[in-house]
Design a protein that fits this description.
- The structure is a single chain.
- The chain is of the alpha/beta class and about 450 residues long.
- It has two domains: about 250 residues, Alpha-Beta Barrel (nicotinate phosphoribosyltransferase); about 170 residues, TIM Barrel (Alpha-Beta Barrel).
- It is built from 16 helices and 19 strands.
- The protein has a seven-stranded antiparallel beta sheet with strand order 13-12-1-5-3-17-18.
- It is elongated.
Length: about 450
């Protein structure tokens, strides 16, 4: 199946508006900002991800000949407009927060400054890219908080909403602090460490569980992880001990790195398995727990003292099950040098070209944010930095490892209340500046 060209990944109204802009001669510079109107009830912060892919998209050529031919066949667009589309590419500037930045409602996380047609055409794809990875990174960050230093592996590919979703979920999770993924293509594409075990089918395909373990371990070149809950978890753990003794007696280096438990009472089974392993001198064999885990279940296991070294998280991560969508929007804030404002009830926007300033304490701790007009004198460090000019990225793109390290530091900079897992509004101030409020009031008077 042929992949859909990125330039047709837009909504029809962007093209119909684009045709109107073209025929009306509207070519002035527009400023659009991407932001989240409100946080889901189950989120106290969000974590920005997907900026690298957004920049890659903006650098691509726009409409190809076959795409223009398809549009011509719709009978909706004039030949003159389609001829113009053939030469359109993104030539604007982009300011964005750094990937891995925690952010809050009403804060612009990405700003596009470009001729209005160019800025409008990229709306849906930008939202598509940044929304998904931010959604998953925000869920993953909560799992990282819950795991309290234990390792986390992304097991979610089979539940993801198609292939690209699985790949970018793995990327977003790694950015947020996950340690590895089971998705091999994500390892190849993003250099994410790979981790996996075996399926129950491998055990069931053998007449005896111990033969399955022995055959699997001997067939692998490196260390292995064995799945031990197909039949009786404690008996399987004992068989692992026996196999390790057998390998040692034969002079074979220790190859069993960990055992995984995927069902049942995970806490009780982990305790029993740890006891069996320790009593038999297998102290360095780790225990991996998986099976319908999310941040709340992980936190329960950690606080309950389950001797888990790692957790595998699948469905809840790759679907962000408790908050499967964000109220993310991309709205016009300025056109032709004049501030613009949407006033729809429940969806009003703060007008003007804005910046987010984050106040920090003496140790770098985050104290509060200010959303202000560009050029305002407010306290804090500006979070939106220019990453693209004239349609080309500035400097060398940040690596995923660098973004991951930055993310870990930033998460630790926030007060414990912001990192709580239970529902509730975080007592973290986000202040809309007086100048922004006054500008909104002025525009309301003019458009009343």
């Amino acid at each position: 199946m042929t992949a859909v060209h990125a330039s047709l990944l837009l909504d029809l109204y962007q093209l119909t508006m684009g045709q109107a802009y073209f025929h009306l001669g509207m070519k002035e510079t527009a400023v659009f900002e991407l932001f989240v109107r409100r946080l889901p009830a189950t989120r106290r912060f969000l974590l920005l991800a997907g900026i690298a892919q957004a920049m890659e998209y903006l650098e691509q050529p726009q409409f190809k000949a076959d795409e223009l031919e398809f549009l011509a066949g719709l009978g909706t667009f004039s030949p003159a407009f389609l001829d113009h589309l053939a030469s359109v590419r993104f030539t604007g500037s982009v300011h964005a927060m750094q990937e891995g930045t925690p952010f809050f409602a009403d804060e612009p996380i990405l700003r596009i400054t470009a001729p209005i047609l160019e800025a409008q055409l990229v709306e849906s794809r930008l939202l598509n890219i940044v929304h998904f990875q931010t959604l998953i990174a925000s869920k993953a960050a909560r799992c990282v908080i819950a795991a309290a230093g234990r390792q986390l592996v992304d097991f979610g590919m089979r539940r993801a909403h198609e292939a690209d979703a699985a790949l970018y979920a793995a990327r977003a999770a790694y950015l947020a602090g996950f340690d590895a993924t089971a998705t091999v293509e994500a390892g190849k594409r993003f250099a994410i460490p790979l981790s996996g075990t075996m399926a129950h089918s491998f055990i069931e395909a053998h007449d005896r569980e111990e033969d399955a373990f022995r055959g699997f371990v001997r067939s692998q070149l490196g260390t292995t992880a064995l799945l031990i809950d197909t039949y009786n978890t404690e008996r399987a753990a004992q068989r692992v001990v026996e196999l390790m003794r057998e390998l040692q007696e034969q002079g074979i280096p220790r190859r069993i790195r960990s055992v995984r438990i995927d069902s049942g009472d995970l806490a009780a089974q982990a305790l029993a398995v740890r006891d069996i392993l320790d009593r038999n001198g297998c102290h360095d064999v780790q225990i991996v727990l998986s099976g319908s885990l999310d941040e709340h279940r992980i936190a329960e296991l950690v606080h309950g003292g389950a001797p888990a070294d790692a957790f595998g998280v699948g469905t809840a991560l790759d679907t962000s099950a408790d908050a499967p969508a964000l109220d993310m929007a991309y709205k016009l804030q300025e056109y032709a040098g004049r501030a613009r404002r949407k006033r729809s009830p429940g969806k009003a926007t703060w007008p003007g070209t804005k910046q987010v300033f984050r106040e920090r304490g003496p140790q770098g701790e985050a104290l509060g944010d200010h959303v202000a007009l560009v050029g305002e004198n407010v306290p804090g460090d500006p979070l939106l930095v220019q990453v693209m000019h004239n349609g080309r990225r500035l400097g060398t793109p940040e690596s995923l490892v660098e973004a991951r390290q930055f993310c870990a530091r930033e998460l630790q900079a926030f007060p414990p209340d912001v990192r709580e897992l239970h529902e509730g509004t975080a007592p973290y101030p986000v202040i809309i500046s007086r100048a922004v409020r006054e500008l909104a009031a002025k525009l309301d008077m003019e458009t009343a």
